[in-house]
Amino acid sequence: MTNDVAIIGVGIHPFGRFEKSAVEMGAEAIHGALADAGLEWQDIQFGFGGSYEVSNPDSVTRLVGLTGITFTNVFNACATSASAIQQTADTIRLGKYDIGIAVGLDKHPRGAFTDDPAKLALPQWYAENGQFVTTKFFGMKANKYLHDHNISEETLAKVAAKNFRNGALNPNAFRRKPISEEDIMASPVLNYPLRQFMFCAPDEGAAAVIMCRGDLAHQYTDKPVFVRASEIRTRRFGAYEVHATSAPLDADSSPTVYAAKAAYEAAGIGPEDVDVAQLQDTDAGAEVIHMAETGLCADGDQEKLLADGATEIGGSMPVNTDGGLIANGEPIGASGLRQMHELVRQLRGEAGERQVPGNPRVGLAQVYGAPGTASATILSL
């Protein structure tokens, strides 16, 4: 029996603000994935689901069908969807089931990612004195990285402007209006060097991906996309970000570095083989940092790459072609599966105005879940 796992269906509920529950959005994403794969819910043998706001995302089954399937809920901060992806793929590789679904859904209130620190086993005074306002940690991290590698603040504006432009081409994005680099630089500084329009926003949405055994894929689609690797890693040393007022910021301490290296090894490829990438851009600085941490470039090369347009849709290293988090916002449970939706559309050649030219064959998705969990997933034809 083959050990390959193929994605045969993807579905997404638009990201933004809606008068419906997160579970309802999840059901719509599932129906979209089923339609894409030409399947019925009764064909799905198991599922993994993730959410930050919904304690039991398995309740989505009451809206799509109570078929008695195995369904496991997962949570790993911003790496929640990646956890659902990994577990779904690995369950199929183990041979227990032939076909399964990963679904992520969330509905966040307006504002920064402050919420209830008790959800991460933290005392309430973290929130009361501002220590759980994650944006300040993003600012500290970006500030040090820019200083260490001689990268200008204007490069952060280029990242955000690029993602807003891409989001304008994405009918499922939250923010669909381009914002110029000048306007981004003129927006209020929230956590230096990060300005208002350099951040994503918590919002609402859902996404789902159906996978099956690789040798069965052509029964369902003429364009299977294979999950070559899905790796999750945590820190090996140092304090976890967000949980402490200081943490090592050296690249070698980042779990993204470990996850990406493991994924490349498992897939048998290198970063030079990646045709299109989806990187965690909770803020513009994060995208810059993750470009290097995933091996797509060396530390400090980002300034020239951005200036030369390398990360644009038509560039040599397209990043966040759907607008990333900056344009889509981040419903935590759905974010990583949104990345899968975009990569599958790109590799199939179905991304419309956002389509990367030259028939891309390899896609990389990376997410970083505070306080210190990262994932790297590699897809290919």
UniProtKB/TrEMBL annotation:
Coiled coil: none annotated. Residues 5-173 form the Thiolase N-terminal domain. GO terms for molecular function: acyltransferase activity, transferring groups other than amino-acyl groups. Residues 251-378 form the Thiolase C-terminal domain. It comes from Mycolicibacterium sediminis. Transmembrane segments: none annotated. InterPro entries: Thiolase (IPR002155), Thiolase-like (IPR016039), Thiolase_C_2 (IPR055140), Thiolase_N (IPR020616). This is Acetyl-CoA acetyltransferase. PANTHER family: ACETYL-COA C-ACETYLTRANSFERASE, NON-SPECIFIC LIPID-TRANSFER PROTEIN-LIKE 2. Keywords: Transferase.
